[in-house]
Write the structure tokens for this entry.
Amino acid sequence: MNILSFDVGGTSIKYGIVNEHSEIKFKDSINTPSNEDSFLEIINSIISKNKMKFDKISVAMPGFIDKQNAMYLYGTNIKYKIDFKKINNFSHSNFLIDNDGNVAAYAEYHLNYRDKKTNLIMLTFGTGIGGGIINDGKLLRGNSNAGELGHILISDNIEIICNCGKNGCLEAIVSAKKWTEVCNELSLKEPDSELAILFQQRKVGSILFDEKVRLTSVQILARDRIIKYISRGLVSIFEIFNNELFILGGSMSEEAYDLVNLIQQNIHNNFEFKGRVFPDIKISNFQSDSGIIGAALLAQHE
Ligand SMILES: [Zn+2]
């Protein structure tokens, strides 16, 4: 079975044909348009120009969805609604829509961990923070949009404004985009520091977590603040879901440096789990393809 799978992000739409073995037979990407009409036009043209045959269409969206009605409702990085029933030759039986964090968690579980773990939680770090919860081998849905882990409240600072409309969300403090902003600020403050020079070359905010880089005391404080909030987020999530594993993915997973080690150290130094073991933390190895692979897998299974 071939699936035409879309992974929609705030800046680009990745798409491709994925077969029943989760192999990507073809992939490409295009800029994300700014309104529903252009969005549907682009999807229709990809569908009609696509030369490979496919059996179903699957779409991973960065925000809230209504699966029954094939609708995208809202997300912090795409704020307009999309009614996918308007695509040419739409049929409910050949179409799947889901949240991008959910499909990424689903791909990790089915392709990497199904025989080893039944409770795992994925957080994707990019422009925002996406989440997906596999509970007892199934995606946890709640009333339909469970797993928005980027929007758990982690600070009472009302100046930390999140795109979702609340203050103090995890994503507003420690998304991968924030790491880059912090590196920028630190580089301006101390332009001759090793961090500033390396950040100029590599351009990724995760360079802050490279333990080989000699950070100044100001830079260590900024890094430790990020690690503190991520750790507190993971600890709170663990207390609710009692998961066996955390997987961190998203745009940063190609260059995570020593992020996991720093989080583990922080949790070890600050928290105790009497009678329990805090879960392992792993970096996703799908890198940027988890969206189209996971959406295609769900389309085959549902
Ligand atoms: Zn939020």
